[in-house]
């Protein structure tokens, strides 16, 4: 054949560069369900199922269009379990002139394809990933000559470049950022109406995948019984429409709020659909902008949402490719504790963690503030090795792919990159969680207390964190106010906090 067109599980887009010159006569699409990708970190069943279900639907769509497809299922006899061996099998079988591949989203996989093609002595035609607004060159240009990178400035450039929410060269509404309007929590009664997102019942193809995952990955974390994610471009579009109509109007206001037994609130649930390329971010941004112009949603919601997709999502990709592979090794706070065992079981008396981890195991989903200010915050305060935290996040979320997960985890949430993603560590006491949620109402601990039998471990570890890193953080002007507060603590208080923190750490390290 002429081209072996390799399509990876997060490249499910017929409009991608891989298909630019596709010939039904001369080319073959090659797709493979690789066991290694589900086991190199101990992956959640929902994440494995999401990838396999979306891949099989994509394959069926290609076949319906009469493309030639060489698809290897995980349960096919002789399926080798890793990319390199499977690529070898395909090359020997089809004898292609070259392998065509859109640049993989993960550094490790990109290297692997380059090396394997060389070993097999076949040309590799690696094409750019057009899914994103920004090219690598655009990010490089943005980063060049800057001492410090900040999402905010990159986001403004993107708004200008793509003329999104702009009028006469100025941001709509007269400012770039409506964050100050987007930090509300709910009243005591919680969200007024329960925003139920559209759910997608598994069809025969997805059911087959769910059975396979249950059988082959029995001991992996998570449950499959709630699986209701969009697994085709058509469903992803329906999920987008549903979000724009029912949840976008409140998205901004309650963006940071948390509530017991409410995993989704006003969030879009679109990350996995976008990351697997079932949904184009341009369509997502367009739909949100249109909702503003048709007065379906207010500006604080629309801007807040577009900032996530056009700003953060593109920015983290830029950071990933600019700093990999060394980024993975960063550990600026020299954290080395083990991840507590309850991250895999939700078995903890800390109600906020029990809720967020429990929900993660049930659905493979948690929204941003749950990831950043509950599970991420606790690991940061405890001083867990950032690589272990990274592996957990890569394993347990259905939307996890390394280019987006790693900078968020290692950088934004653990401050292990020393300040590329965040200008200061996101640290807070349990009082922040109390303000933004009702988790503390059902908890045996008291977020106000740092010492004593009912002290909140977040609050104890927060003060301990600041004392531990006082010297390192004192160079950071933005930490000034927080550091000033420890100066007010007496020697006695400091000693008590330190010894309580030590007890928490030794208890948790015995349960790592
Ligand atoms: P919404 O809240 O509705 O946001 C809309 C969209 O904006 C999302 O679908 C997503 O595509 C994008 N977005 C929002 N925040 C971010 C962000 N910080 N970085 C990049 N894109 C963003 N997102 C992933 O897609 N995959 C991951 O593996 C992942 N790991 C994370 C790990 C940590 C520690 C943290 C703090 C965040 C992580 N995020 C990750 C970002 C964010 O939490 C998720 O994108 C979001 O919660 C997905 O839910 P949603 O689609 O309902 O998002
Ligand atoms: Fe979490 Fe502390 Fe609140 Fe309990 S008291 S829910 S541990 S923040």
From TrEMBL:
Keywords: Signal. The keyword Nucleotide-binding does not apply. The keyword DNA-binding does not apply. It comes from the Eukaryota. Residues 176-205, 492-512 are annotated as: Disordered. Residues 178-196 have a biased composition (Basic and acidic residues). This is (6-4) photolyase ((6-4)DNA photolyase) (DN A photolyase PhrB) (Photoreactivating enzyme PhrB). It comes from Cladocopium goreaui.
